[in-house]
Structure formats: structure tokens, C-alpha cells
Amino acid sequence: MATAHIVEGGFADPVFASQSVFRAVMDAMARPGSVLPIDAGISPPAPLNAAAAAVALTLADGDTPVWLEAEMAKNEAVAGWLAFHTGAPLAQMPSDAVFAIASNPAHLPPLTGFALGTQEYPDRSTTVILQMASLSDGPVLRLSGPGIRTTNSIAPRPLPGHFEMQWQAINDLYPRGLDLVLAAPDAIACLPRTTRIGNGEA
Amino acid sequence: MTLETEIEDGLASYNFAYLDEQTKRMIRRAILKGIAIPGYQVPFASREMPMPYGWGTGGVQVTASIIGPDDTLKVIDQGADDTTNAVSIRAFFAKVADVETTTRTGEATIIQTRHRIPEEKLTEGQILVYQVPIPEPLRFLEPRETETRKMHALAEYGLMHVKLYEDIARNGHIATTYAYPVKVEGRYVMDPSPTPKFDNPKMHMSDALQLFGAGREKRIYAVPPHTNVVSLDFEDYPFEIQTFEEPCALCGAHGVYLDEVILDDRGGRMFVCSDTDFCEERRAEGHRGHLSGEAMEAAE
Ligand SMILES: [Zn+2]
After folding, report:
1. Least confident residue range of A97-101, B27-31, B162-166
2. If A68 and its partner were Cys, which of A16, A64, A73, A133 is the partner (CB 3.0–4.6 Å)?
């Protein structure tokens, strides 16, 4: 029974599903705040949502340690399902993670605790996948930066505590930093490290 | 067994878009990092491709990692769709990814290019993939990778300005006409690949996503849409693009990049659009240049 939960529910056609999920992620990363639908037809064990799972299956593998927020890490079905479908090892520390997944952003450690890259290799950083209940009915964030013609806005919830302050701290580290994938069950939006939140200029 | 069936059989065992899934994931991760850090060169583990370096293996790997069955691919070499290089790459993807191909800029979702950015304004949702031979703009000033990496880390670009200024001292103007360095979003100095500097302004605030792949040098970098791309210059020597005195001899277009074409061995020559699709579409619309009749005959 437990094994079936782990083996089932992945991509029916991994080659084409991961290509189409990747294009959504790429588009979302290139146009911060744009909401892209994710319909990969997968059914991961709760509390992992389908969009977050699809992104993980598309990008994670044996070369990319994945850190799971406590609630997910202690859920054997989630950890087993991800391990089976991606082959990714679990990262012990947020700072060791290439990807991090959190189902409860309120319990996320400080963003600056993840891998932030180095000045020489700013790409050696964590991509944090935050599961969202909604991308449209939370508090409105006004966005600007590369990928955005003038401004864009998004209203995700629930966000980690003091999010705007935390994000400002990430902006200040540029080119070091990290990138966020906000994953509602059926859609994603991205905030790369270059995106500024609020009306102030960086 | 014919050559064609041999190729068919060989490719039948390849994955969609030729690359294996693990390689695609690795390249896709690098592309996302490139987009998140515009102009920064992300290292990646470049794979052998069934074509030699210099044929755009970096661009081919990027295209192979993003392309899907719904895409329409255009490939240009200089501005032309019909060179051996462009035709081969287009045929390769038609075979291994079973995608539609086109020569029309407006119809393409992905445009792989060597040397040119199409004259037709690219639109939201289009992706321009550059084949890059030498991704490091500081390489000719500093051969050591550890040193150039440090310069990028510290945004220490004084040497580049010195080199451009020496150009001015020697020539009275900045003589660099290809691969003219740009600064992306006020941070990274980037090599726009060997495009003529004429095309540099098209990179600035483009509606399209721009991806760069260097196969031999194992680097991927990117410029997201709506991103600042500024050609390096000096207050007293502002950046200028090439200008052409005559319009295209075939379609009469002004303000486009022209190639010189030798017509005969008596010194006859004409200047025509380097972007062949742009030129053809204009002629189809009825535009004529001063040599269009003659040129047609010469071509026959
Ligand atoms: Zn023309």
C-alpha cells in the first residue's frame, strides 16, 4: 500500500510533461509575476501540491539535493514519492539545497539561510518552491525589474513572515541571492532575485 | 540500406530532441539561473552533439532543451535561412523533435541564430537562441578564467573601457563592429555573440526572451524580456550603429543591415538586406529596390 503511493502519481509521459512544465517555469522566471497554469496530470501525496511536484519532477535529479520543510520531511509518503520520482537526495540543511520545497511558508526558515551562491558563482544557490493556497487573493505585491515592462502585480498567500523585508535583503545581495517559485495547486509564478517588490527603487 | 534509412534507424533510438532527459534537466536548470541573473555566464556540462563545434553546438543544446512539439523553429546564419549551417540545424530538429520549421520570423516561436537579430521586431513569447563561440567578453584582455571570473564578481570592468578607449586613440572612433560589449541591467558586461553592433539596440528592452549557448566554452547566459542592455561607450564618444548610405538594392528598405554582394568580375556590386526573410517579405508586399529587376536576372 505504502509502496503504491510512492510509485504512482508521477508524469504519465515524462519527456513531454517535463518539457511543457519547464517552458511554464522558464516563462514564469522570464516574466516575474506572470501566472502560468500547470496541468501535468500528476497526483503527489499530500501535503505536496501538484504544481510544486511537477516543478520538482521536471528539474530535480540525483545531482540536486532537495530540502523539505519540516512538515513535509517527516511525511514518509512525500519524501518517498520525491525520492522515487526524481532520485534526488535529501539536503540536511537549507544551505545545502539546490531545491527547497515548503508546504507551509509560515514555518520557512529565513530566506538568507538557503544557499545564496558566491560572488564568483551566484548560480550556486537554492531555488525555493513555496506552495501557495492562491496566487490572486492574498496581499498585492507590486513588482518591477527585468522581465517586467513597467510593473506587474501578484497576490500570493500565505507568504513567509516579514516577506517584503526578507526579499529586500535578498535584493541587496545581488548577484548573490535565490529565486522563488510560488506554486498554487494548478499554477505557478516566479520571483527571480532581480525582482523588486514595492514602489521604491532598488 | 540507404543513407536515409540509416539516419532514420540511428535517430529512432534517440530521445525526443536528441538529448537525454538528465542532460536536458541540467541545461534547463542552467537556463533558469541565467534568466535570474541576466548577463551572468552559467557554467554547464556541454555534451557532444552530432555536429562539430563552430556549428552552434551550444545553441543547439539550448534549443534541444526548450523545444516542444508545439514549437515552430526558424534558424538563421548571418541573416539567411538557406545556408548549409541553418538548413542542417533546421533539418536536425525537424527530424529529432518533429517540429514545424519556418523561414518567417513572425511565425517562429523559437529562432536560433548565428550573427544576426531579425529586422522584424520580435514579440512577447518568442525566444531567440544565440550560437555563441566565445562567451567571455573579457577573454581577449585576460586569458585566465579565474581572473575574468573575479572581474565579473567585482564588476571590475575598467580594462574593457581602457581597451575601447585605446580604440578611439588609435582610430578616432571605437573600431569594434562585431561582438560589441554590452552591460546588462547595470551589472554584468556581456558578449552579445558575433552579431554586428547594428543589432545591439534590438537587445535592449526586447519583448522576446534571449538565450545564449556556448558549446565549446560550456556557458549559458540569458537576457529576459524588458531588460536593460546598454552598449559600452563614453560621454564624448557615444555608441553608434553602422549606417548605410543606400537602401537595399532589392527591396528598397532603409535602416536595415546590408550585405555587399559582388555581381560580376568587373567590380559590379550591390547592397542587399542581410535578413533574407525580411527582404523577401518586403518584395512580396511590392517593395522594389533600384536593382531588383537586374538582380533577378543575375540570379537566374
Ligand atoms: Zn531588402
Report:
1. B162-166
2. A73
Grid cell at residue A25 = 517555469
Query: pLDDT digits over B268-280, tens only?
Result: 899 999 999 999 9
Cβ distance B31 to A26 less than 8 Å, yes or no, reads: yes
Q: In chain B, what are the domain boundaries?
A: 21-147+175-231, 258-299
Cβ–Cβ below 8 Å for A19 and B226: no
Q: Is-cis flag, bond preceding A47, omega within 30?
A: yes
Separation of CA B293 and ligand 1 centre (Å): 13
Q: What length does chain A have?
A: 202
- Reported ipTM: the value is 0.97
Closest CA relative to residue A191, chosen from A162, A161, A155 = A155
| CB-CB under 8 Å, A18 with B37 | no
- For residue B293, is pLDDT > 80? no
Q: Are B26 and A123 a contacting pair at CB < 8 A?
A: no
- What are the residues facing B183 on neighbouring strands? B189, B230
Predicted TM-score of the model (pTM): 0.95
Of A19, A64, A194, the CB nearest to B38: A194
Partner residue facing A194 (CB), from B25, B66, B185: B185
Could you give the CA distance from residue B72 to residue B110 in angstroms, rounded to a whole number?
6
Nearest to B90 by CA among B59, B81, A58: B81
Among B147, B194, B176, residue whose Cα is nearest residue B234: B176
| Confidence at residue A201, expressed as pLDDT on a 0 to 100 scale | 44
- Cα dihedral across residues B46, B47, B48, B50: positive or negative: negative
Active site (catalytic) residues of B: 39, 248, 251, 273, 279
Q: Give the Å distance between the CA of B260 and the centre of ligand 1.
A: 12
How do residues B215-252 score in pLDDT, each as one tens digit? 999 999 999 999 999 999 998 899 999 999 999 999 99
Which residue type sits at B164?
L
Domain B21-147+175-231 has CATH 3.40.50.11310: yes
How remote is the C-alpha of B300 from its chain's centroid?
30
Closest in A14, A58, A123 to B37, CB measured = A123
In the predicted structure, residue B255 carries a pLDDT above the cut 70: yes
Question: Hey, of A20, A29, A149, which one would you mutate to test binding to chain B, going by the most B CBs within 10 A of its CB?
Answer: A29
The top-level CATH class assigned to A4-199 is alpha beta
Cβ contact A196:A171 at 8 Å: yes
